[in-house]
Amino acid sequence: MANFIPYRRNITSNTEVELFEPGRRTSFRGILISNIHDSNAAVVDLYHKGQGSTFYVIKNLNIPVGASVMIEECAPPDASLGVYIQIGSSQSIDVRIN
């Protein structure tokens, strides 16, 4: 069974956030990332990681205040990779997985 998070709200920490753990087959169409901070742009990394390797889907994507971006077809190519997101400091985002 796929590990599915339908919604993850208000990520504010600049530490790595695991959306899907390695070893689980994930199935989703895309990830909507919205900048919800009042005054700061969000700088976002979205990546697959596992077995000592990291593969970036997006790196240092600048999302302006009040804007959103939809990343489609970003599921990992195999179950050995997890899906992670990280933002810069003093930033806030909402993440919705479809």
The average pLDDT value, as a whole number, equals 87
Order of helices and strands: EEEEEEEE
Number of distinct helices = 0
Helix content: under 10%
- Strand order, main sheet: write it out: 1-8-3-6
Outline, from the CA principal axes? globular
Q: How much is the radius of gyration in Å? A: 13 Å
Estimated share of beta-strand residues: over 45%
How would you sum up this structure, described in words?
Helices cover 0% and strands 52% of the residues. The protein is built from no helices and eight strands. It is mainly beta and 98 residues long. It starts with 6 loop residues before the first strand and ends with a strand. The chain is globular. The strands form two sheets. A four-stranded antiparallel sheet has the order 1-8-3-6, with no helix packed on it. It has a four-stranded antiparallel sheet with strand order 2-7-4-5, with no helix packed on it. 22% of the residues are buried.
Output the keywords:
4-stranded antiparallel beta sheet; mainly beta; 98 residues; 52% strand
Produce a short descriptive summary:
This protein is mainly β and 98 residues long.
